[in-house]
Amino acid sequence: MTNSFLYYYEVYFIRSSAPSLTYATHQSLNIGSIVAVPLKTTVNEAVIFRKVKKPEFETAEITSVLNTNYNREQMEIAKFISEYYFSSFGEAISLFIPFKNTSLTDLLPKKIEEKILPKLSDIQQKAYDQLLKKEKALLFGVTGSGKTEIFISLMAKMMEEGKTSIFLMPEISLTPQMEKRLKVYFGESVAMWHSKLTKKKKASILEGIESGEIRIVAGARSALFVPLSNLGLIIVDEEHDDSYKAMTRPRYHARDVAVLMGSKLGAKVVLASATPSMSSYYKYDVIKLDKPYIETEKKYTFISGDRINNTMLDTIDTHYKAGDQSLLFLPTRGNFKYLYCESCGKTHLCPFCSVGMALHRKHRHLKCHYCNYTEPIRDTCIHCGHTPLKSERMGTVEAIEVISEAVEGIQIEQFDKDSITTAKKLKEALQRFESGESQLLLGTQMLSKGHDYANITLSIIMGLDYILGLADYRARERAMSLLFQIAGRSGRAKAAQIIVQTGDPEFFQTYLADYELFIKDELAFLEMAEYPPFASLARILIAHKDESKASKITLDTVTKLKAFEEIEIVGHGKAPVEKIANKFRFHILLRAKHRVPLLKALHRVDCREIEIDFDPVDFA
DNA sequence: AGCACGCCGACT
DNA sequence: GTCGGCGTGCTC
Fold first, then answer.
1. What is the torsional sign of CA A614, A222, A138, A215?
2. Domain A536-614, CATH
3. Residue A607, annotated as binding a ligand
4. CATH number among 3.30.70.1230, 3.60.10.10, 3.40.1440.60, 3.40.50.1820, domain A7-100
5. CB of A105 lies under 7 Å from some atom of strand C
6. What's the pLDDT tens digit per position in A354-399?
């Protein structure tokens, strides 16, 4: 194998944003091989990127060749991620777990006994048959319509064909519940994967994958990158959830990468949600799972205002006295205040961007977080003339105080990021609620994520107007999907009452019975206002401890970008969150009708001092 | 002027 | 990851 002839390879360092370096070796190596190379005084792991001619400069020699490698598909997908999401190749490839050189590629079929598999209803069977025929599709079905049984049937089918499956969920906190469910059918063939697993646990799962015992990997975002051979299926459950978008480099969207991976590997991709994203509904074939599995009656009541009022307290009391359980949602107390009208529920929108304008008390003005347009704080609502406008909302702690005082004896579970800090606390809170020890689950966004709560007969959703007023082109989508998700948590077994607090009941009422109607109207709005999926957005973040330097980088970048005709600079200036970790933050928001010119322009600007977020979901 | 410290870029 | 160059800011 070894000879005196030298080969030269460009390598990227694993877990590093550094540019590629060139090393020499006596061996011919495969692209994707993992090697150890000297760098200054240390030896580091790197991946062979490509073969090159003998360079002009002196080269060091590769220290050793390790017994793991990235395969061709992993290298190609990492290349795509690094280019589309603006990270180095080293950072992109590090998302993946490499294959062992000894890995076997053939898997023997595993048969799941038919009698233990869930029996599909006619509606489920029809959706299943349709999904079998499609390379990729969006499964659109309300909460409780039995999507999980369809997933299980699909995964069982894959196993019978000697293929493996990946099942993505938006959050780690959802995995224990799904694990229980999957183990019933797949036992040791299924493993749960997320970034918080111990090194030891990860190693043992990887061993199981390598031996072919594990055929299904389920978990959060990172489960997408495990080294499964013969991948046949990727399921992205709750595909509308923004948790799929990574907030650090590479800032990839797991749902979109899943679709790419599916087409590269010839694996089926099933996106699923009761409240699908506008973009998925627009882009993919939709398979509807119409009728709820268990049909229960839901009665809606609309209440205006922004506090807990007597109607709510009385209703909570009634349900409590009847021995039933309730759920109350409050939006997370965000960093930004918005002026909204108590009377009509509407917020003041930016005239240029159609997103809510944020209130900056310090500067006494309203500011658009997209284009940085500002105007004085107004006193009256431009929609109905009502005065005064409000900006304060209730927090979870205050809400608990008010309810505890009014409803004697009720035990309330605080369900938010402040109180649910660990998996153990989550489990205990849910257990107390399930056992009936507590009767009201009161919390934030977390409530909307598919945890199973048994006998809820009352759901109260507060602060929807606040969500509607967010500086986000998807504010309406967020508000509507939240309402549907929370309403879906109640009435699983018995009829349920749902109280919706909004000053704009007509908006929500129009769509209550039909989320698809909302999608159609919202897509029309997005097309008119030129937002995704009818345009491409990118956000540039500039952070520097020296404010004038940050400002200069921003302006220089804007100047360079102005040369590109096909892209629009929506706005630039101080970022909504002006300072993080002692660094002053500036941002630039860009839009283009097509993504390719936007990508091209951004690849031309100096990216060392800026961070690019392509297809952003967060504008803070 | 001299020195300590921290940031940033290069390393192959 | 580690090293060294350089600029900033503090002290003598």
1. positive
2. 3.30.70.560
3. no
4. 3.40.1440.60
5. no
6. 899 888 888 889 999 999 999 998 888 888 888 888 887 778 888 9
